[in-house]
């Protein structure tokens, strides 16, 4: 999957709102397992290996950030360039000052996070992206405001922080946006989902954006995914529409995006994961469904076409791809919710890992969480060369550090 390198070593980064679906009527069979020791929780493998080593599946030491906050969206990146991943997130903090805020947390050497700054932001912010929009080498920020129908751009300031917002009106009910150089001119552009379309805003290279193109979709498209489906070095766009229950594909053609096809699967299309799950060298697409609580897996054909391979009865909350076993091929990770009741008081979130085997996705492990993960990342947070898991959601920020399981 292509990543866009920016001036000063920055990479375009996308943040999007993790929508919260209603609890499923018939949750997957998964029970809370007592940890093997006081501080470890188990990612239960479907086939228990004889010797569990650090890594998924395995055992994890959970660390919940003490700051009371409910985070709906975020991005894990090295924003201060010290070699450690930091977290930029939007959400609300607990206590009497309950208000929408932008949080910046600095990552430490042991996987911990320290709150660096918190700033009040408009209540309608749905998602933010980070990139160098004016070419000065400093990270800038753009956010779309659902209530006001604007894209707010704030340029990076000397010494950190951001300047005042440049407001770009785009229309009511803007959804979580994405960023990339879509037309190949070396400047970052924005893709903003609206009620039944995705608007492409062309970057000028000065920190401002102008209208460029409108892509028609089904109702309420989610965050677009930007990926080179036909391997021509140019980014295409894939987006799911929530009310139309479809995946829409737009291919790059002479600086513009043109509709290639729609694919129906599940109900309430939302989060998208991109990765070469079947190992054929071509990116595949996984689409989470918020209403049917399933995940549809499409194999890429290398020319922009997709083929529906299967619909997994899991996920819907969030989706991602990560090479957990370091074999060069990513696994599919999906976040899901479980119904809670008076008799079921344990954790009600889960992360599941699927691996492509013999033509289908096979469940390899499942990790119970105290609440569903709205966003998650896999990265070595404490420098021990094992891959850890970072999640955000209603319970705030949690870091799951990979540890050896007790013998």
**Helical stretch count?**
0
Beta-strand content: over 45%
Q: Which sequence of strands runs across the widest sheet?
A: 24-25-26-27-2-3-30-29-28
Helix content: under 10%
In total, the number of strands is: 30
**So, CATH architecture?**
7 Propeller
Cα-based radius of gyration, to the nearest Å: 20 Å
Mean pLDDT: 84
Kindly report the CATH topology: Methylamine Dehydrogenase, Chain H
Largest sheet composition? 9 strands, antiparallel
Weakly predicted, low-confidence segments: 1-38, 47-52
Give the overall shape, derived from the CA principal axes.
globular
Intertermini distance: 39 Å
CATH class: Mainly Beta
Order of helices and strands: EEEEEEEEEEEEEEEEEEEEEEEEEEEEEE
CATH superfamily grouping: Integrin alpha, N-terminal
- Into how many domains do the coordinates divide? 1
């Amino acid at each position: 999957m292509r990543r866009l390198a920016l001036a000063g070593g920055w990479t375009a980064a996308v943040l999007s709102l993790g929508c919260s679906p209603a609890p499923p009527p018939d949750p997957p069979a998964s029970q809370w397992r007592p940890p093997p020791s006081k501080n470890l929780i188990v990612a239960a493998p479907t086939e228990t290996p004889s010797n569990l080593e650090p890594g998924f599946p395995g055992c994890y030491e959970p660390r919940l950030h003490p700051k009371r906050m409910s985070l709906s969206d975020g991005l894990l990146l090295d924003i201060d360039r010290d070699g450690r991943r930091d977290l930029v997130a939007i959400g609300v903090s607990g206590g009497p000052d309950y208000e929408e805020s932008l949080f910046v947390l600095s990552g430490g050497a042991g996987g911990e996070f320290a709150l660096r700054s918190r700033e009040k932001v408009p209540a309608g912010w749905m998602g933010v992206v980070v990139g160098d929009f004016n070419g000065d080498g400093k990270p800038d920020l753009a956010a779309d405001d659902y209530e006001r129908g604007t894209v707010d751009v704030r340029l990076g300031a000397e010494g950190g922080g951001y300047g005042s917002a440049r407001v770009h009106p785009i229309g009511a009910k803007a959804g979580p946006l994405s960023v990339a150089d879509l037309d190949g001119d070396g400047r970052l552009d924005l893709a903003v989902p609206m009620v039944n379309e995705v608007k492409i805003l062309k970057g000028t290279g000065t920190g401002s954006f102008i209208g460029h193109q409108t892509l028609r979709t089904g109702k309420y498209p989610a965050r677009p995914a930007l990926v080179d489906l036909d391997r021509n070095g140019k980014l295409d766009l894939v987006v799911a529409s929530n009310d139309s229950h479809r995946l829409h594909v737009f291919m790059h053609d002479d600086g513009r995006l043109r509709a290639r096809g729609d694919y129906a699967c599940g109900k309430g299309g939302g989060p998208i994961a991109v990765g070469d799950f079947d190992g054929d060298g071509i990116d595949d697409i996984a689409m989470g469904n918020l209403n049917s609580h399933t995940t549809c897996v499409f194999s890429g054909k290398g020319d922009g076409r997709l083929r529906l391979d299967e619909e997994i009865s899991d996920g819907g909350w969030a989706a991602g791809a990560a090479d957990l076993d370091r074999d060069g091929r990513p696994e599919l990770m999906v976040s899901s919710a479980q119904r809670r009741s008076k008799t079921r008081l344990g954790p009600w979130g889960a992360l599941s890992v699927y691996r492509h085997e013999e033509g289908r996705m096979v469940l390899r492990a499942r990790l119970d969480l105290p609440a569903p993960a709205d966003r998650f990342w896999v990265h070595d947070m404490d420098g021990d060369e094992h891959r850890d898991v970072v999640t955000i959601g209603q319970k705030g920020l949690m870091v799951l550090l990979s540890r050896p399981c007790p013998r």
